[in-house]
Write a structure and sequence with these properties.
The complex is a heterodimer of chains A (about 400) and B (about 230).
Chain A lengths: L1 H9 L3 H41 L2 E5 L12 E2 L2 H8 L4 E16 L2 E10 L1 H8 L5 E4 L9 E4 H7 L6 E7 L5 E12 L4 H4 L2 E5 H7 L5 E2 L1 E6 L5 H11 L5 E5 H4 L1 H38 L2 H9 L4 H36 L2 E2 L2 H9 L5 E2 L5 H27 L3 H5 L2
Parallel strand pairs in A: 4-9, 6-8
Antiparallel strand pairs in A: 1-11, 1-12, 2-10, 3-4, 3-7, 3-11, 5-8, 6-9, 7-8, 13-14
Chain B lengths: L2 E14 L2 E14 L3 E5 L6 H8 L7 E6 L2 E2 L5 H11 E4 L11 H11 L4 H15 L14 H14 L4 E5 L7 H18 L2 E6 L2 H6 L2 E6 L2 E7 L1
Parallel strand pairs in B: 3-8, 3-9, 6-7, 7-8
Antiparallel strand pairs in B: 1-2, 1-4, 4-5, 9-10
Helix pairs in contact in B: 3-4, 3-5, 4-5, 5-6
Chain lengths: ~400, ~230
């Protein structure tokens, strides 16, 4: 009976209930869109920066992160690799050597980021081969290189041409070499695309005169969320007076700060939106309560306990908010799903400004239950907030005064 | 006859604009089972206040009301609600049916509060609706019923819980002559055939004419108590 009375009560004033539910739907839709676009962009930024470049967990020489010079590289032993692979959640270990080099072709020169990789594993984990736009992918035994498409454009160099690299090798030795371009890749992050050169690990070690050295061991893990646990476990297993495991969060604090700052701004906007909606819902509750005080008094007079009446009021709130959130989520799921697989491509000034920040100029949504869960929790809070008034009004109801209304 | 209500030295005073008002001023009376009594008097005489205090809706300043051996002033607010549910039926001037429930559901609602079985509820409601002559409107919501029909549903609702007595506050005030006559016939019949106790507060002569006992109040005091 309580459920039936509550259900019928909310439809007494259909227009008012419709407007209230619509406002909740609107809030849910806007909040889910904002959050899923924001989180989708953050994931993209993390993938661009972390997935492509640093990896979720790295092991370095303890001095390397503070002073990223080749002399702070590390000698990798099979024991260290086996130790790392034995940690739960670790899928594999790949080795990288990184350095800066001045690249020259004809009359153009440019500072570049040179990374020596295991081409097969790099493709396996970050799908590097799929980023190839021209030429062919490199193999472990190749003596040729891959370069970013924006770098190739800048240097006006194409597949088959030879790029001259100059830099500093291990222990201050000069590093000089000329390498044919086997392929051109397009990296999602424009900043990286403008400076990246990939080279087979052995060739890079030879160029940098550091035959068995690397600058980092990239720990490939099952799930990015495991990074902290894996990192802690690794640090407990390795000699931390020589090497140190770091998570992507430690390695890219500026990215975290940017995301956190942006996220806080987003939360503030959603908070304001929900606050407006909460007051709208409260307004409806206020009217529903005030206009029914006499009816409440009658129900109490004929034998209904105040607590039971309060429960009916709470159920009414639950109905209104549940319909709002249910319809809101049902409407957003297909749209969020669509933009997850078909991100909005930004153009013009907006695209340029995103690229300047190293962000790929597209907005994907993130399909994650937690975003929907957040809205459910917020609406539950609004329900609880809105239910305070009728419950209070019922509990404090003066029967005679209300009956005289 | 068994005494259902016993009122002793009842006072209800309140302060209105610094003046002490004695709404009920030393009333003592009792009602027996099967009475059909009207409390009459001009506006402000205290009849509705007295009725509200008998029904436990309003608190009194002094005195006592004993219903079926229970001093209602000793009951907590929660106990008082349960007491009303099981012992007192109310009929209001403005019918006060729950608008979102049908006529039948309105009457059934009170039995649901008493946790009566569905079968028992259905049987009782059919019986009551037959008695008040509103069976054909059982599934209609109050908004689509006339005043007289709504008041009949209100009587059925008041009787549904099998109370010890019915308190009716100006039950005919909003009804036309025909509806008033029909309603009084129904209530009188229930009183005579089923020995149900009715106590009215009214200034409607038609009700007074049909009452078996007329208690007249003036300035909160009983000035006459006639049994016809």
């Amino acid at each position: 009976m309580n459920l039936r009375i509550a259900w019928r009560n909310i439809w007494r004033n259909k227009k008012r209930t419709f407007i209230t539910i619509s406002s909740i739907i609107l809030a849910v839709v806007l909040a889910v869109f904002t959050r899923s676009f924001n989180e989708g962009t953050y994931v993209k930024m993390i993938e661009n920066s972390v997935g492509q470049l640093t990896g979720y967990v790295n092991i370095h020489n303890i001095d390397y992160w503070e002073d990223k010079m080749l002399d702070n590289g590390m000698e990798v032993t099979q024991d260290l690799i086996d130790n790392a692979k034995s940690v739960e959640g670790v899928n594999d270990v790949t080795l990288k050597i990184e350095s800066f080099a001045l690249a020259a072709y004809e009359k153009s020169t440019k500072g570049t980021l040179l990374i020596g990789i295991n081409p097969k594993k790099e493709d396996e984990y970050v799908k590097l081969k799929s980023k190839l736009t021209e030429g062919e992918y490199i193999t472990e035994s190749d003596r040729s290189i891959l370069i970013g498409s924006r770098l190739a454009n800048y240097l006006k160099i194409s597949v088959g041409d030879t790029l001259v690299l100059m830099g500093q090798g291990h222990y201050g030795q000069s590093a000089v070499g000329a390498y044919p371009i086997k392929g051109i890749i397009k990296m999602p992050s424009p900043v990286i695309d403008r400076q990246i050169i990939y080279m087979p690990l052995a060739l890079a070690q030879e160029y940098l005169s550091f035959p068995s050295g690397v600058t980092s061991m990239v720990i490939r893990i099952e799930d990015g969320d495991l990074a902290d646990d894996v990192c802690n476990e690794l640090n407990s297993k390795i000699d931390t007076t020589i090497n140190k495991a770091m998570t992507w969060k430690e390695m890219t604090p500026e990215l975290i700060q940017m995301i956190e700052g942006d996220r806080a701004g987003g939360f503030l906007m959603i908070g304001i939106l929900y606050m407006i909606i909460a007051f709208g819902v409260f307004g409806t509750v206020l009217m529903m309560t005030e206009e029914r005080k006499k009816e409440f008094a009658v129900m109490i007079s004929i034998g209904m306990q105040k607590s039971q009446l309060a429960i009916i009021s709470i159920i009414e709130m639950i109905y209104i908010n549940a319909i709002g959130i249910g319809v809101g989520i049902a409407l957003t799921i297909p749209i969020v799903m669509y933009f997850h697989y078909n991100p909005i491509k930004m153009t013009g000034e907006m695209a340029k400004s995103m690229e300047q920040f190293g962000i790929e100029a597209e907005l994907p949504t993130l399909m994650e239950f937690s975003i929907f869960k957040e809205q459910i929790i917020i609406i539950l809070f609004i329900t609880a907030f809105a239910a305070i008034y009728p419950v209070f009004a019922i509990m404090k109801l003066k029967l005679i005064k209300a009956l005289r209304k | 006859m068994k005494k259902v209500i016993e009122i002793k030295d009842l006072f209800k005073t309140y302060v209105d604009a610094d003046i002490i008002v004695k709404a009920v001023n030393g009333v003592s009376l009792s009602f027996e089972e099967g009475e059909f009594a009207a409390i009459v008097g001009p506006s402000g005489s205290g009849k509705t206040t007295l009725l509200n205090m008998i029904g436990g809706l309003d608190k009194y300043t002094e005195g006592s009301i004993i219903i079926d051996g229970i001093d209602i002033s000793q009951l907590s607010s929660k106990q008082m609600i349960d007491f009303r549910l099981n012992n007192i039926g109310f009929v209001f001037q403005a019918y006060n049916l729950i608008p979102v429930l049908t006529a039948k559901e309105n009457a059934e609602f009170i039995m649901q509060l008493q946790h009566k079985s569905k079968k028992e509820r259905q049987e009782r409601i059919m019986e009551l609706f037959e008695a008040v002559g509103i069976s054909e409107k059982a599934n209609v919501r109050p908004g689509k019923l006339s005043g007289g029909q709504q008041q009949r549903v209100a009587v059925a609702r008041a009787l549904a819980s099998k109370p010890k007595f019915i308190l009716a506050d100006e039950p005919t005030a909003n009804l036309d002559s025909k509806s008033t006559a029909d309603l009084l016939d129904i209530m009188r019949k229930l009183n005579e055939e089923e020995n149900i106790t009715f106590i009215f507060s009214t200034h409607d002569q038609r009700v007074i004419d049909r009452a078996k006992r007329v208690i007249t109040l003036e300035d909160g005091k009983i000035i006459s108590d006639e049994v016809k």
